[in-house]
Amino acid sequence: MSRIGVFVCHCGMNIAKTVRVNETVEFARDLPEVVVAEEYRFVCSTPGQELIFNDIKKYNLDRVIVAACSPLMHEKTFRKVSEAAGLNQYLVTIVNIREQCSWVTEDEDEATSKAKALINGAVYRARLLAPLSSRVIDVHPDVVVIGGGIAGIQAALEIAAVNRNVYLIERTPSIGGHMAQFDKTFPTLDCSACILTPKMDAVLQNPMIELLTYSEVAEVKGYVGNFDIKVKHKATCVNHKKCNGCQACVEKCPARGISEFDEGLNKRKAIYIPFAQAVPQKPVIDRESCTYFLKGKCRLCEKVCEQGAIDYDQEDTFREIKAGAIIVATGYDLMDTKPLVQYGYGKYPGVYHALEMERLFNSAGPTGGKVVMRDGSEPQSVAILHCIGSRDKNHHEYCSRVCCMYSLKFAHLLKEKTKGDVYQLYIDMRAGGKGYEEFYNRLLEEDVKFIRGKAACVTDRTKNPEEAGKLIVEVDDTLTGKFTRIPVDMVVLSPAMTARKDAKEMARLLNLSTDKNGFFLERHPKLAPLSTMTDGVFIAGTCQSPKDIPDTVAQATGAAAEALVVVMKEKMELEATTAFVNAAACCACQNCVKVCPYGAPFFNAEKNVAEINEALCKGCGLCAAACPTSAIITRHFTNDQIMAEMEGLMEF
Amino acid sequence: MDFEPKILGIACNWCTYTGADLAGTTRLKYPQNLRMVRVMCSSRINPSFVFRAFQLGADGVLIGGCHPGDCHYGTGNMYARRRLAITKKILEFAGLEPGRFRVEWISASEGNRFAEVVTEFTAAVKGLGPQTKLKVSHDG
What we know:
The complex is a heterodimer. By secondary structure, chain A is an alpha/beta fold. Chain A is built from 19 helices and 34 strands. Chain A has a 5-stranded parallel sheet, covered by helices on one side. Chain A has a 5-stranded parallel sheet with strand order 20-27-21-22-23. A 4-stranded parallel sheet of chain A has the order 2-1-3-4, sandwiched between helices. The relative contact order of chain A is 0.11. By secondary structure, chain B is an alpha/beta fold. In chain B, helix 3 (76-93) links the parallel strand 3 and strand 4 (101-105). The mean pLDDT of chain B is 93. Classes of the chains: A alpha/beta, B alpha/beta.
């Protein structure tokens, strides 16, 4: 027999206007196992709370039912009161007689009888409730940041600023990401490297940040507060502890590979530092192009290295890292435009994509900042084609957000560096951002030819002598309504920003969801844009959706704050309303293992039963309903509790 | 007196239950016949809950969850959708009128829709009269 106390709230007139509270209390008093039933004008007020507190003591109550507003409003309040009075908080039941009764029912009789039925259901359920205790776990103080682009750099610096250890994992030989490749940044036209490299340096100098370049996440286990991350450090063939960065090896290396950093427009040595300001300033050997690895002899770099840092036999190593929170900032891939054959990328040497243009403009790039094409000539006319693969239902329906602005930037730089004509072929000019519209207006004054229309194709098939030797861009000009052919020397494609090719793999490692375009899915598009469905894992930057540098940096700072909210606490309370397996009833079908979105259930092969890692469980109850033998019990929402409540509700 | 059906609702905490609260906050009116049970996710709903509700004398059962794709737990309502589709078939196989069981996806922002669905469903069940097929009589 339990001892139940029922407290019915008037909520001023909000409830009392349609529910006859007095009659409801009389009704509740006569229900089985109810020891006391009281009413009060505002149960959530201090005297109201005291009433509950005192009655728990006075009547030795072991269950409390509060019939008032929605549990989403004051459940926490009444749970606190009950804990204070020495009653486990999970023995409190809230009956929603305001939002779902008095406010939606006009007739007094109807509202009163509905309130009675709801209270009856709660009494039935309350009798079967069990006290629950939240498990308290220790939180690991460190944070892991995956991805060393501007987002990862920013997040790592913010976390390090409050003296927390950060591991910054980057898979290429240097941090910097796409931003390091850019020449100027819109709309202010400040030099990308000038604003980025101080931050890269700050990462290197910061004792709280451990930089793990040429490394990848191989495995993630654990849960919020206690992640175990296995990091694979790819063999660099250079012992970075011994290397002093003198680059004698790079100088002497006779072999060449294709420069990834210069988007293939240039060659680099087989032992290389990807770019001048790379962090760390330590070379790696590309085994695909190294003469020693290809032909078995050379070893020139070993001979010139005074530090004895070259180690051809180096193998991939693995390292275990513990962290309390993870920030994912893995960035984007530029869409491969080769499959869009109509634009001739890869077919005509005069067609470039946006990142290649960035390198062409850059004074540290393959042409020393001169805009010269693959044949060495300076273009006399350039067409910039917007929305290649973006805003295109055949490829990516979304807008990539930054292309309009960087295309304008290209036009400006082309005007500055060449004497040629510049055409912008756009669908709509999207300049939403601080100073963006102003930048567009500035370009309108710079003798750039704007053509409103999406380019249909790029071809070298000429129709008249004027077009000879040119690339012809065909476009339907939607302002004049005319189909136009524009002969140019150079074509620049502004392709879609897409999710990383291996985003799905990363999502699987971290148990994240991806949206229909492959970008990581945030917990809520507006109110939790940096959180994910996995507690303790946050996302920032273009791995979530295409965005510009200011938005990326803002997100990274936000994600750092979110991660700090987790790791600044030494202890953390875990959800008490989790599921557990009654091993005796488990039939080992592993349905639960298959359906759980959080990977909480796992199969214990030794005992031949499923078990649930309660730290991962969110208490949704999916597994309990999927369990054919009802071996899984969801605490606080057990089959018996729910059925009992239904029984109580259906009585009246 | 007119027949007043008993309707049992089971709603997920994050969408439909919150949507029902919104219907209240905006003071929409709907018939009093609905008695709602809150669960954390529509995927928690075991088909046996539905059968039990009809045994207990429910004239109609209304299930509410997040829109497919918007589940708070990611994929829960996808499982619920399949499971409840089969539940509906079993109920029909047992001879119950199809109109007595309904599954609706109502988001937390759709207070209007919640009130509409309840109003419409109540009227529909009212038209079907008392449910006797599965009800277990208390008299034995």
